[in-house]
Write a structure and sequence with these properties.
Blueprint (H helix, E strand, L loop, with lengths): L9 H10 L14 E3 L12 H12 L4 E4 L10 H11 L6 E6 L3 H14 L8 H14 L6 E6 L4 H5 L9 E6 L18 H11 L5 H10 L4 H14 L3 H14 L6 H7 L19 H11 L18 E12 L9 H21 L8 E4 L3 E7 L6 H4 L1 H14 L9 E13 L2 E3 L1 H10 L2 H9 L5 E6 H6 L13 E7 L2 E10 L7
Parallel strand pairs: 1-3, 2-5, 3-4, 4-5, 9-11
Antiparallel strand pairs: 6-8, 6-9, 7-8, 9-10, 11-13, 12-13
Length: 510
């Protein structure tokens, strides 16, 4: 999306030259010249005023600020949202703002290498020379003294600290769940919402909500920000009373085996767009791609997408997602009855949910669409992509083995999981786009189905698009790129190369 700048502004011209390929930036004078992959601002950001003031004081004093969760390991606490809010409140304080996914060294090096190119440094073509050059330029404050680096999801302090500029004039902000940062810097703890903050967010979405109902919802959800945000969206979208929401929540929590985590339970409550009214019946669906596109449009989560006006002349917006599709092999085979299929679906959702959470991908942050014999997941761009190939496959395999060990033959599962990423179009109805269609084409390619069918001892096939393999897997040691094999698939209009690994229940990768 283009930005409008005064033609006389030398700084605006420099922004266009240095950062044309980066994520959309704020518009106007006085914003950073170099702007790197900052997540969009949350228009419903609530509270945290005292914490934001403390953060500003620490950064202003030249102190590296650490934002670990007060309850270590809990997702949805709001660390990243706080960092983003701080950035947008202090745009004029910096000439460089650069967001780094700090999940592993290769990703950090790649991000710093790109920063070197935007700073127009010499000798930054390769990470081996680029990273030292960037760190030295930041240390010296050339060409910019006012810089802010954000290391997001930095769970390994010793690793991440090795990429800090030493004694530079700029500032560093870290978000992490790890308690180990306390040994290296004074942490600023981010806790759950206060009760007043929870109620404020709920009342903002639903002004007529009774104060006692808001208090009860906040109590049920443990004041966890992600869960409160989801509840607020549900209430505003449905217009139904709080008592309905609480009944849904209690039923899901009662059935949940996932440690009764409020964020997970809240994410499973059917969103208003999932409810098909009498005057909005599902269209005739001739293919799984159309089925997925329809469901993607009715399960959009307002937590992950900007508001989009429904007027016909409103320009379409796009956002980048990691796209995951999971399919149960032979779901409709005749040896299974409807009871078997219902238990398979229940097992699929439990396995997928647990695998995502244990991999560091918060289930509540993702948009999901049910596919009957599978599930489509759209993960926001700020979730590190390496998690989907470093941790998710093994986590899903583990959950799959657990399920199969406790169910009869008719209810055992073999899964194909396809991973892609790309721009998704957001309109007033939800999500659509070529990237979603491409994921389904590689997931359902005849070639990979035949190969997987021949490997009966292999319960899980992980299928990567060529783009995801080249941009993510190949640069991630923990993703085990050497275990992937290349296949050529043709499915309808799509003919492309894919990369697949087969994970077996026992030792090793086939």
């Amino acid at each position: 999306m283009s930005e409008t700048m005064p033609p006389s502004s030398e700084r605006a011209i420099r922004r266009d030259q240095l950062a044309a390929t980066r994520q959309e930036r704020p518009i106007g004078d006085g914003v950073p010249s170099v702007w790197g992959s900052i997540p969009p601002r949350n228009p419903n950001f609530t509270g945290r005023e005292e914490l934001l003031e403390q953060l500003a004081q620490r950064l202003g004093a030249g102190t590296t600020a650490i934002l670990p969760a007060a309850l270590h390991g809990m997702g949805g606490i709001g660390k990243t949202q706080m960092a983003v809010e701080y950035i947008y409140r202090h745009l004029t304080d910096y000439d460089v703002v650069w967001w780094i996914q700090a999940t592993e060294a290769t990703v950090i090096r790649a991000s710093l290498t790109e920063l070197g190119q935007h700073l127009q440094l010499t000798g930054v073509g390769e990470p081996t020379t680029a990273v030292p050059a960037v760190l030295e330029a930041l240390r010296l404050g050339r060409p910019f003294r006012r810089w802010l680096l954000i290391f997001d999801s930095a769970e390994e302090p010793e690793l991440v600290c090795s990429f800090f500029p030493i004694h530079g004039p700029g500032e560093i902000l870290v978000t992490s769940r790890s308690p180990n940062w306390a040994a290296m810097a004074r942490p600023l703890e981010v806790n759950v919402f206060t009760r007043s903050e929870s109620k404020s967010l709920l009342h903002r979405a639903t002004p007529d909500l009774d104060d006692s109902d808001a208090n009860q919802i906040a109590e049920k959800l443990g004041n966890l920000p992600a869960a409160i945000d989801r509840a607020a969206a549900w209430l505003a979208g449905t217009g139904l009373p709080a008592s309905d929401y609480l009944q849904h929540f209690d039923r899901i929590l009662e059935k949940s085996t996932l440690h009764r985590h409020p964020s997970i339970a809240a994410s499973q409550i059917i969103h208003p767009r999932d409810v098909v009214s009498a005057d909005r019946k599902p269209p005739e669906l001739a293919s799984k791609e159309k089925f997925a596109e329809y469901h993607a449009s009715v399960t959009r989560s307002p937590l992950n997408s900007p508001d989009v006006d429904s007027a016909p002349d409103t320009p379409l917006r796009t956002a980048h997602f990691t796209i995951v599709g999971i399919d149960v092999e032979g779901f409709g085979q005749t040896h299974r009855n409807n009871t078997n299929r219902a238990r398979i679906r229940d097992g699929l959702y439990q396995a997928t949910e647990r695998a995502f959470e244990s991999s560091g991908v918060t289930w509540a942050d993702c948009t999901r669409a049910d596919l009957g014999d599978g599930v489509l997941v759209l993960a926001p761009a700020d979730i590190p992509k390496p998690l989907f190939t470093e941790k998710l496959p093994r986590a899903l395999l583990s959950e799959l083995i657990k399920h199969n060990s406790t169910h009869p033959r008719q209810e055992k599962m073999r899964l194909r999981m396809a991973i892609h990423a790309g721009e998704v179009t957001i309109d007033s109805h939800g999500y659509t786009g070529n990237s979603i269609i491409h994921m389904f084409r590689i997931l359902n390619g005849a070639t990979i189905k035949e190969v997987f069918s021949s490997k009966r001892s292999t319960p899980l096939a992980v299928i990567s698009s060529d783009w995801f393999f080249e941009e993510v897997i190949r640069h991630s040691e923990k993703s085990e790129a050497g275990s992937y094999r290349s296949y050529r698939v043709k499915n309808k209009e799509t003919e492309t190369q894919i990369w697949t690994r087969f994970l077996r229940a026992q030792k090793g990768v086939q």
